[in-house]
Design a protein that fits this description.
This protein is an alpha/beta fold. Helices cover 32% and strands 19% of the residues. It has eight helices and nine strands. Strands 1-2-4-5-6-7-8-9 form an eight-stranded parallel beta barrel, surrounded by seven helices. The protein starts with a strand and ends in a 7-residue tail after the last helix. The relative contact order is 0.15.
């Protein structure tokens, strides 16, 4: 069965990447949640997509105590998602403020995932191979997945991810084919597609055999798969 993961929580209904969004995802009937993690200047893992707040302050240059109340720590977010699968996307790109070439965010995230007994429930993903390499080296029993853009050669990406010991590929949904999914499963990798709110596309992805689909509209995705969402 294809799982439904609420992208940044139920982002179409509640402010994304907040505890309310994660709780809403749970009540929708979603199987999991995707969220983004960054590190504050004082080393706290927090959940936020962009490198800076709306007022321009960079997360990497701001103490955790000075962040808005609605912006949760990763620890609080994982507690709110207890019982759900959680895909934790590590945000650390060279073009962003606060880029850390030592991959401290990925390492700290992997340590937290391991301490929480997250094997089988938590996934650590990133667009940067270095980030998931660091996470896997820190906690080899936690699933790590490589995020890829649609323009990538997905079969080449799959081979690279497999060769480096990662257990999931996270392709942009347009790039998913049944052949890709079959090849991934033969190599022992799961396929988690991102991100679509179109019911027809959700059905196509499910028919292709993906293990999970990420969506801002878990209600639409669940209905497309013949599963009843909660109001």
């Amino acid at each position: 069965m294809t799982a439904v993961w609420a992208h940044r929580g139920w982002a179409a209904r509640v402010r994304e990447n907040t505890l309310d969004a994660f709780r809403a995802a749970r009540t929708s009937g979603a199987d999991g949640v995707e969220l983004d993690v960054r590190t504050t200047v004082d080393g706290v893992l927090v959940v936020h997509h962009d490198p800076a707040l709306e007022d321009g302050r960079a997360i990497a240059e701001t103490p955790a105590a000075e962040l808005p109340e609605w912006l949760p720590t990763l620890e609080a977010a994982l507690a709110a998602c207890d019982g759900l699968t959680v895909d934790i996307e590590v945000k650390n790109l060279p073009i962003e403020i606060g880029y850390d070439p030592d991959e401290g965010t990925a390492i700290a995230t992997a340590r937290m995932a391991a301490a929480l007994g997250g094997a089988g429930r938590l996934v650590i993903s990133a667009f940067a191979m270095a980030a998931i390499d660091a996470a896997r080296a820190t906690a080899p029993h936690i699933t790590t997945g490589w995020l890829t853009l649609a323009a990538y050669d997905q079969l080449e990406a799959l081979e690279l991810a497999a060769a480096r010991g990662h257990r999931a590929l996270h392709p942009r949904h347009e790039a998913v084919t049944p052949e890709l999914v079959m090849a991934a499963h033969l190599r022992g990798l799961a396929v988690h597609a991102w991100t679509t709110d179109d019911g027809g596309e959700v059905r196509r992805l499910s028919d292709a055999g993906v293990d999970a689909v990420m969506t801002n509209r878990p209600d639409i995705a669940l209905a497309a798969l013949g599963r009843r969402s909660r109001p």
